[in-house]
Amino acid sequence: MPAFLTLKTAPSTRLPGSLSPARSDTDDDLPALDRLGTVISLRRNGTLFVEGDAARYCFKVLTGAARSCRLFPDGRRHIGDFFLPGDFIGFDAQEQYRFSAEAVTDTTLLRYDRHNVERMLLLRSGLGRRLLDRVYHRLSVAQEQMLLLGRKSASERVASFLLVLSERNGKADRISLPMSRGDIADYLGLTVETVSRVFTHFKTQGTIQLESAAEVIIKDGHALENMAEGV
Amino acid sequence: MPAFLTLKTAPSTRLPGSLSPARSDTDDDLPALDRLGTVISLRRNGTLFVEGDAARYCFKVLTGAARSCRLFPDGRRHIGDFFLPGDFIGFDAQEQYRFSAEAVTDTTLLRYDRHNVERMLLLRSGLGRRLLDRVYHRLSVAQEQMLLLGRKSASERVASFLLVLSERNGKADRISLPMSRGDIADYLGLTVETVSRVFTHFKTQGTIQLESAAEVIIKDGHALENMAEGV
DNA sequence: CGCGTCCTTGAGAGTTGTCAACTCCAGTGG
DNA sequence: CCACTGGAGTTGACAACTCTCAAGGACGCG
Fold this sequence. Notes:
The structure is a homodimer of 231-residue chains. With 231 residues, chain A is α+β, with helices and mostly antiparallel strands. Chain A is 38% helix and 23% strand. The first copy, chain A, has 7 helices and 11 strands. Chain A has a 4-stranded antiparallel β-sheet. A 4-stranded antiparallel β-sheet of chain A has the order 2-7-4-5. In chain A, strand 4 (66-71) and strand 5 form a beta hairpin. Residues 1-27 of chain A have low confidence and may be disordered. Chain A binds chain B through residues 70, 72-74, 76-78, 80, 92, 94, 98-99, 121, 125, 128-129, 131-132, 135-136, 138-140, 142-143, 145-147, 149-151, 186, 188-189, 229-231, and chain B through 70, 72-74, 76-78, 80, 92, 94, 98-99, 121, 125, 128-129, 131-133, 135-136, 138-140, 142-143, 145-147, 149-151, 186, 188-189, 229-231. Chain A binds a DNA duplex (30 and 30 nucleotides) through residues 153-154, 180-182, 190-194, 196-197, 199-200, 212-213.
């Protein structure tokens, strides 16, 4: 259950070099949203917004990747979600953003004024219903993630993560990781070292192959699936 | 951020002996839903529905408490949410339920036919918007829980849990725990023993007082808050 | 080519889990 | 009324998984 399969729609603009999202869209209302947005671009680690900011905008990723995160006073960090091309960010905000959002790599986004989105919601009744469904989906994704964080071992978490990324890429065997090991760790509730060790463990087992630190090839998807389910 | 402050509305029926939910409702559409429901009652550990069932009904807790849970093949269990009086269950289901739901104690609920709810959603446009907001709220609660499961220590988790329950009871210092230690453990991603140890630790510190295993009195709420935030 | 950042690897510590025994309490039946 | 029983909760000793700290290696960029 991919956290980043959520709130997905086709990017309105296709640029080369982007992860191409799996598309299962039959949308007709959502593209209309795009006309409300303006394109912005951010450098790696650039800030979309900070937790506590007035929630003026929401976004859609066009190319690159973004992450939502929260910080403890003592520096612990948790990443709630990764957003890949086609994903929406911040539609669920109320008055203020409840988390910060940053660019994982150089990233281009569509930025919408929430005020306009609200108006559009009133005009097009189908849009509200469609958003509701998308949020329901996000919720079930979040539940899956809670299961992962609450009850899965380190290996199970990484296996689940790889499978979700693969799924997101149309079940491709070759997946690229735009985010750092540290990002993955903070997303899975682990440390960088543990994530790295699990990767090499999978590599040693022959379950995966590492082209580079950011390029994984899944050699034994079945083994990964068993691992992810705790078999 | 209470997982069980979610999707709350005033119970349509007030029965003695129930936890009285904190009310912050100015709803007008949701009570109309109640007329669609029929009252049912379950014994402790009774089943509302099972993961994978066709999602025919949704529910609202009137008295008692319920839990949503998921199981691993090897017996590990995770509780996604507790539902106290006024909480809705299963509104976010799609075709099938994505988790099982059970009564924590003897419980009475309102059961709605999802088909009727759908129709009502179409008739009353305000209802869809209100549900959307509630689901957004649930989502932010889920994000809070992911933070807890991903990055908090055992003590921090239990402290957060007690505070949420207190909040839910109108910030009362005296809170009752309808669920078992095992339920709490599976909700917080811990074991029964760890939960128990943290309780006695807090008791020894003078942070809380245990009237019985199911009755907690918060003696030092400030200490709990600091602990929950990781200070 | 050198520097910095990220990743990997190792050794040891710590928090939480596991296993097992004991206590407490409620419900039951003599 | 009291002993028995079973489930839930507590406590202890030990193990295990993951974290922490530290060092070394790889890769990209200036």
